[in-house]
Task: structure prediction
Amino acid sequence: MNIANIQKLIEEKSLHLDIEACISLKIKDDIFRPGTVRVHLPAPINASWLREGQLLDSEPFFRMASVEDYPQRSVYFNERLTENTPFSVKYAFTSEHTYVNPDIDLVDSTEQKVFSNAEIDRFSKNHHCGCESYTALPHDAVSILDVIEDRGIVFRPEYAEFLNNLSIPCTKAFEENSVNVENSLKNGSIARKIYDFITENFGKMNRDDHNIAFTAMCRMCGIPARWQGGWAVSDNNISNNAIAHDWAMVHLLPYGWIYVDCDFGAEAFHKKLSCAGTTTDIRLHDFFFGNIDPCMVPTASVPGADLYPAKDYERADKMFNIYGEVELVPDKLSSEGNFDGYGLKSSDFESIIHII
Result:
């Protein structure tokens, strides 16, 4: 996380950053074989804070790019190589964040948006929210894929157990094709209690599950929630190398969609991190309920979604495309006497991601 930018966002209430993001990928020399190489490099997707997105450079020139609201967006290369050369792509955009400090009492006293079955059916047929390039998602629109049917949002039995431990009655709203669920607690209190429980019980679940668990549990309580994944600047890394990261979004009126990061929130809670010296002297644990690190690049909105065009062979990362995916079809016959290709494992190639 970039604490300096977080502190500036808290102090100034808004933050404008010009960001360049670049990913380069090269097959390891001992793995490379001359032949056809197919590569998917991740690309930025729609997000409320991204503006004026541009693709600055590509080496070699990519064959195609999936649309900007594609669940796991990528640029696709299909090259016949005789020598082992790298693939790279560079993006530029502005990042505009507004600081949100949700008033839970205000959320609880505000009538929340209820999505009817007819609305859910309409959004499902559209397959997306109809958002434009690099603009905020409509506050009154959410698709059934976002709320109910994400393949990577697994409703594990322990999620219901966690909610029971919080004395939160829940129902499997996704099975009832409805997100209108009555609870003894209001949406704001429920969402915040789930966030606190996940972040404060850091050791009780896999770190990779934090934000998926938050999304799933909110949905089980009838609160619309979404997931996103992509890149974040790694801690104390002067080379600007980026790491894989994910976060969540939850729909709470009067704020609309707000961001929640249970992963960084857990780290902030257990390390007792704060933005000391700011006008509010806010705990970072509180910051990540309503906000995310400004130096983020989202590349996926559905965990486990297919790439486009689909790979013929097994993926290196089945959850989401962060470091790239590679397929290799060698020129020479294999020991079995054929030209069968194969998907490379993440250990077979090297990826470097920079966020500047």
Notes: Confidence is low (pLDDT under 50) at residues 127-139, 176-182. The chain has nine helices and 14 strands.
